[in-house]
Amino acid sequence: MGRAFVYVILGGGVAAGYAALEFTNRRVSHGELCIISEETVAPYERPALSKGYLLPEAPARLPAFHTCVGANEERLTPKWYKEHGIELVLGTRVISADVRRRTLLTAAGETISYKILIVATGARALKLEEFGVNGSDAENVCYLRDLNDANRLVDVMHSCSGGNAVVIGGGYIGMECAASLVINKINVTMVFPEAQCMPRLFTPKIASFYEDYYKSKGVEFVKGTVLSSFDVDSNGKVVAVNLRDGKRLPVDMVVVGIGIRPNTSLFEGQLTLEKGGIKVNGKMQSSNSSVYAVGDVAAFPVKLFSETRRLEHVDSARKCARHVVAAIMEPEKTGDFDYVPFFYSRIFALSWQFYGDNVGEVVHFGDFSGNTFGAYWVNKGHLVGSFLEGGSKEEYAAIAMVTSLKPAIEDLAELESRGLSYAMAV
Ligand code: FDA
Ligand code: NAD
Boundaries of each Monodehydroascorbate reductase 3-like C-terminal domain copy (predicted)? Predict the structure, then answer.
């Protein structure tokens, strides 16, 4: 048994939703496009899962955050896909792909063939077992990647209000979930191996601001160590975590955010991989001309830095999804993807944005004891990255613009003294 489509999107996450919208903007014919997703719901804005979804009052629930509301676009409900003649094949895992024959095989045994495939399989959360720690399948240990994980986290959180949580990992999931747990009246201890939170992005000075803010909300930090084992009771619940430095932390629940791995396994040995993802060109086309890749799974050339990068952020998933559809449907009118990396987060009453690259020398500016501060990164004489906490819409637009221009910087001290006004003047 089998079905055939002109275009198939494999994966039903952020990139799939934005690609679907772009296909309809470009008047894809009814019956030509199919989206296959392991998830049982239509594409949604994944960032909501660690923020609005975890709020104690009036939490965000589907259908409110289906794509593409995150970019102030239409909300694509299952009805929308139906009305636009797009086949949504939900709750269906693809278990193998044959790029030579242009076919996908689903776990249900169906073969789906395509003329053009867009791989948008995203990534999976790394498990503690991959670092040699067992027991993370206990009912009160939570990961967070999809809606099922989020529902489980909400249930566990509600069952231990007033209790103690340990958050493993000091990255995005760790920081955002710790904030949500506190808002839900749970006492939080964060444990991570580095000397500071958000080591992939923050400077020590920036990290220290957020750590102090979290401490003021009651969060405790145990840094420079990792988990060595769980203590589990007779019901299979984790009751304490043991750390490699010898500490034992009693817990009612655990949240783990220790990074991700892109879902490339279906294509290993068939497509060229780089930086852990599927290598694509500026049209998001892989080493096989019928296969494109977008989102967390794609390693694409970032023009601004003349380098191939794999980004794990929603803005790049949205924009490269739109670009790939333009490149497929109007190849002669579509140039190479030209993208300035953009990351953001919102925690408690705080909110920051970052553009570009965090390499080179750092110049901090603003009031680190107040509400608005930031940093520029200057590499080889050019401004390549900008961070801002607590900015206005105009200020964020200014740091985005200045970063995209990569201006020459001769005097770091002058940049420091001008601070945000430097970006505002560009
Ligand atoms: P995404 O993960 O969205 O979708 C992949 C889809 O493929 C899923 O539906 C999956 O089930 C499906 N799939 C995979 N393999 C399959 C198979 N074999 N068969 C069928 N289906 C398959 N970023 C940011 O910039 N700001 C933010 O605030 C946040 N917040 C945030 C919170 C949380 C909880 C997470 C987990 C992530 C974020 N992110 C973020 C990151 C952002 O959500 C992420 O970069 C995008 O979702 C990537 O979009 P993709 O479409 O590439 O993958
Ligand atoms: P991450 O890469 O941001 O952070 C991983 C963290 O895990 C590291 O900072 C480190 O502290 C910790 N770590 C690594 N190995 C460890 C170990 N053995 N034991 C304990 N800690 C260890 O990954 P994440 O926080 O898991 O986030 C997952 C994905 O979701 C990422 O792609 C991220 O970009 C995305 N996300 C993004 C946002 C955002 O952009 N605002 C929000 C949530 C999630």
Answer: 340-423
How many Å lie between the centroid of ligand 2 and the Cα of residue 243?
A: 19
Mutational pocket test of ligand 1: of 94, 106, 121, 347, the residue with most ligand atoms within 8 Å of the beta carbon = 121
> From the CA of 13, how far away is ligand 2's center (Å)?
19
> Ligand 2: distance of its center to the CA of 137 in Å?
19
pLDDT digits (tens, 9 = 90+) for 28-72: 999 999 999 999 999 999 999 999 999 999 999 999 999 999 999
67-97 per-position pLDDT tens digit? 999 999 999 999 999 999 999 999 999 999 9
Q: Which residues line ligand 1 (CB under 6 A)?
A: 11-16, 36-39, 46-47, 49-50, 93-94, 120-122, 144-145, 263, 266, 295-297, 312-315, 317, 343-345
196 lines ligand 2 (CB under 6 A): no
Pocket test for ligand 1, best of 21, 36, 46 (most atoms within 8 A of CB): 46
pTM: 0.98
Under the banding of pLDDT at 50, 70 and 90, the label for residue 426 is: confident
Pocket probe for ligand 2: among 194, 222, 258, the residue whose CB has the most ligand atoms within 8 Å is 258
Instruction: State pLDDT tens for residues 353-395.
Output: 999 999 999 999 999 998 899 999 999 999 999 999 999 999 9
